[in-house]
Structure formats: structure tokens, C-alpha cells
Amino acid sequence: MQVATLKRVARPFEAYFNISQPELSERIEAIRRELGQELVILGHHYQRDDVICHSDLRGDSFKLSEMASRRSAQYIVFCGVHFMAESADILSKPHQKVILPDLAAGCSMADMATIEQVEAAWDELEDLGIRSILPITYMNSTAAVKAFCGERGGAVCTSSNAKGIFDWAWGQKEKIFFFPDQHLGRNTAYAKGVSLDDMVVWDPYQELGGNSVQALEKAKIILWKGHCSVHGRFQGHHVDEVRKEHKGINVLVHPECKWEVVEKADYVGSTEYIIKAIANSEPGSKWAVGTEVNLVNRLKNEYPDRFVRLLSPDLCMCSTMFRIAPENLLWALDNLKAGSIVNQITVSKTVAHWARAALDRMLAVQ
Ligand code: 13P
Ligand code: SF4
Fold this sequence. Notes:
Elements: H1 21-35, E1 39-44, H2 49-52, E2 57-59, H3 61-70, E3 75-79, H4 82-91, E4 97-99, H5 108-111, H6 115-127, E5 133-138, H7 143-151, E6 155-157, H8 162-170, E7 175-179, H9 182-191, E8 199-202, H10 213-218, E9 221-224, H11 236-245, E10 250-253, H12 259-264, E11 267-268, H13 271-279, E12 286-290, H14 293-302, E13 307-310, H15 326-337, H16 349-365
Parallel strand pairs: 1-2, 1-3, 3-4, 5-6, 5-7, 7-9, 8-9, 10-11, 10-12, 12-13
Helix pairs in contact: 1-15, 3-4, 4-16, 7-16
Bound molecules: 1,3-dihydroxyacetonephosphate and iron/sulfur cluster.
Iron/sulfur cluster (SF4) is lined by residues 46, 81, 107-109, 140, 228-230, 292, 318, 320-321.
């Protein structure tokens, strides 16, 4: 009998794990000073504190890419996940190079819709004669899926502009095919007055996505069977429990949460919306927040005169965001200083062209 052995994959920045935290921090800051305007470090709101403290710009996925494209820095170090770095590369100027400190920082939601699956699903719908349909993808998808939408007249959306993009899409076609987050799609369509009966879920592992021809013909929106493993952990009973425990608490959740959680919440909105809601709230107010724990803890620390807690009692952390650490950030910067570019994220020309078309359509609609 053959016994499988697990190989330990060497990471090029392994030696950096022997460096103390203060030294890592000092060396990162020294390189930032040295490279000056040549370097911009972007940090997504879900990054850990010991990483985000080194960023020049903080934001949600779209805001960061947009901000980076307006900077002239030659090196864009993206402290976030792979699809964000791809979008930054698509929107960047030709002389700019985008670096992701750990290539294993992916996104399980983006991985749930591969381009091959999306193309196969589209072909199945075409074979059924369903033509009045526009593909729309969430920012949290691969560049290839964005390009697929761009090439077919569709667009990208983010959690902050999904409603406007859905209006735009339904203004042109009868149906939307939405990837990869079923929850954002369902919550947005429901808020626009579409009944749950007029939505179907497309399971890429089943014929016709697991639907009848009639259901597909009737649907106003076809939702890809994808979800965020972090936001998907919040449950309706967490809302009930937190309300019982803290009288008068406000429940504020991200639209990647399940429909029943969003229905029970007081407020729903993107990462930027969540930050603004807490920032503009009254001192003494109470908040249970349904989003990634690093952001919730940061808000808790930044607003000590308000009561801020995670919606669920268990940890909702994005483990791939967490992969970006001071160790691999310093490793990437040390290499830059030495004239070597490591972990560059590049999107091929054709994919970038069509993905950009989908991103530009989104910008034109807002
Ligand atoms: P935003 O950054 O657009 O708020 O999306 C949340 C998220 O899950 C990022 O991965
Ligand atoms: Fe992906 Fe969810 Fe992590 Fe965002 S929080 S990177 S959607 S797994």
C-alpha cells in the first residue's frame, strides 16, 4: 500500500519568521521612506492591524484599485487578496507593477466561479434560447470572469453600487446572470422588489444548474451558487440573540450575508458604508456588526465611546486576507529595494481589455 506523504511547501519568505515584530515594522517603514513616491502600499479594510498600519491608502476593493490608478507610483504593493491585485493591475498605468506579498492570498468566493464553469453555463442558457440576459459579476471574481462579462455587454458591480448596476442591466435585458455571490445578488434583487420566486440558483455541478427550463425562463435573475465563507457564517439566530442580550443595539451587516440575516438587520451596506455608519453614530450607541472580524475590532478600538461587537460569538475571520503578514510584506519590499520584483500580478492583455470594459461600464453607470 502506498502511503501519501504531505510535502511541506517552502515559502520564499520563511526566514523572515525569525525576525521580531518591532524589527519587521522598523524595516518596512525604512523601505517606505527610502522608496518614497515610487511605492504605494494599499490595505484592504479586512487586513490585520500589523499590516494595515503600513499602508498609504485604506479602502474597500474597488476604492483601492481606483485610488491606486490615480497615483503615479511605479510599485503598487497590494495588501489584500488576488482578485483585488488583478483589478489594480487592470486599472493601472503601463509603467506600474502590482505585487501581492503572498500568492496564496486568494478568495474562496472568487474561486467558486471558474471561467470554464461560467462559459459552460452560458452555453447551456443559449442552447435553451435564453438570450435576453446580461452577465454581471461582483468585484470579487477573477479577471477572466470580469472579461467574460465585458465581452458580452455586461459589467462589474461592488456591494455599494449593485442596485444601480441591476437597474441598468434590467433596463436592457429581461434577466441578469449574476456571479459569484448568490447572497449579494439575492439581497440586491429583493431590495429592488424582485420576489424570491423570480430568482433561481445556478449550481455549476448540475445540469441546467439544477433548474427546470420553466424556472429559468421565468426568472428575473439567475444567481450563481457561490458565497463568502466569512459572511456566510452569520445566522438569523445571531441577530435574535444579540438583540436579547443588548437592548437597543443596532444590527449592521454586509450584503454578502445570507438573506435572512439581512432581513433581520437594521442596516445593510458595503464595508465603506459600515465604517461610515459607526463613524457618524452617536457616542453611547450600540452596534453588532456582521462583517470580517479585523475590521470590527478596529472599529471597536477606534470608537471606544460606542459599544461595537461582532454579530456572532464565534470568530469570522478571512483566513486568506490574514495570509498577508509583516513577514511577507517586508520580504516583498526587501526584494524591491534590491531591484527584484517578486509576486507580480499581471493580467493578460486580452483579458485586461475586456475586464476593463466591464469595469468602465460600472463607472459610467454610477
Ligand atoms: P468590499 O471590499 O467591496 O466591501 O467587499 C467585501 C469583501 O468581502 C472583500 O473581500
Ligand atoms: Fe473572499 Fe469573503 Fe475573504 Fe472577501 S471576506 S476575500 S469575499 S472569502
